[in-house]
């Protein structure tokens, strides 16, 4: 069995024939780790995540992820579809044909993992942005996702909720053995990562120690 939860090998993808977005892009995330993906605007980060979810297929190369995979969007209002917290987490389990008792148990366990069990009956509209992101993460936990992909999940959050969320995901990775890949532009989030990638023009140009990347970005050696 591979040591990687996410293995992207020489992937190329173009939205149109004139402009390749990903060019021989490779990236590997070890199992049970929390890695971040940074890069210049338009370098292809969101496109790469869409390939990982299977929403897009690469024109060449290989995309391999340990399944099941959960996805958290930048804007939770594009993701949460049911009226209440508990109903939304349960909705993600419909395809699994579980008994009512099993569904209830999975929902409660997932909400407890993100410290939201007390809000199970609350309407989604009455949640803060950070709470909504936790509901989206609970949906992935309820489905027993091994891999969590998060595309700028803190972009709409205030600084306190931002750091609460990144800390929560780090704890989930460390306590549950999940693997997470988190796209961000925010350098302070790198303090929570096990490793980081930097993307430029459709390729990973740096990878490894997040503190080293942070220092290089702060010094202007690479620009995000
Ligand atoms: N649906 C689409 N149709 C056509 N082109 C697209 C589409 N989505 C993205 N692109 C183009 O692909 C390139 C990479 O975009 P992508 O959103 O993957 O970059 P990104 O690194 O996530 O950017 P940002 O940091 O600004 O969010 C850009 O040139 C963008 O205009």
Automatic annotation (TrEMBL):
ABC transporter domain span: 6-222
Record organism: Thermoleptolyngbya sichuanensis A183
Matches recorded under Pfam families: ABC_tran
GO CC aspect terms: membrane
Signal peptide: none
Domain of life: Bacteria
Chloroplast as UniProt keyword: no
Alphabetical UniProt keywords: ATP-binding, Nucleotide-binding, Transport
One GO molecular-function entry: transmembrane transporter activity
SUPFAM superfamilies the UniProt entry points to: P-loop containing nucleoside triphosphate hydrolases
CDD domains (UniProt xref): ABC_cobalt_CbiO_domain1
InterPro entries: AAA+_ATPase, ABC_transporter-like_ATP-bd, ABC_transporter-like_CS, ABC_transpr_CbiO/EcfA_su, Molybdenum_import_ModC, P-loop_NTPase
Name of the protein in question: Energy-coupling factor ABC transporter ATP-binding protein
